[in-house]
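F.,

This is the one I mentioned.
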């Protein structure tokens, strides 16, 4: 586990405690300007894929939502495709935000 991944985990946990959904932009803002954007994006993606220590209550809620989604997808196959599309769009949005931040940093230099 890298120090940057640990930092992302800490920032994400703090954001969740504040009732916010951790996004790349929020994590970047909290991490500060001294953190290289590509490394931060990699650590953020790693956190997003496997967030450490998810509260049991939250995990149960996610499990219930997945079951509901599976049941709905069985009734409506198009729903599963739409859910996959949303996940892909979220990943592309994160990448676009990272590129935007890199451009802003380059312009500010």
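My design for it:
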């Amino acid at each position: 586990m890298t120090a940057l991944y640990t930092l992302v985990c800490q920032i994400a946990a703090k954001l969740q405690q504040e009732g916010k959904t951790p996004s790349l932009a929020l994590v970047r803002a909290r991490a500060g300007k001294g953190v290289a954007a590509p490394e931060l994006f990699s650590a953020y993606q790693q956190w997003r894929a496997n967030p450490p220590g998810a509260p049991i209550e939250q995990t149960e809620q996610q499990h219930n939502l997945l079951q509901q989604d599976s049941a709905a997808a069985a009734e409506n196959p198009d729903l599963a495709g739409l859910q996959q599309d949303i996940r892909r769009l979220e990943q592309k949005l994160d990448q676009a935000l990272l590129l935007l931040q890199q451009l802003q940093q380059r312009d500010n230099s």
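DSSP finds five helices and no strands in the chain.

Talk soon.
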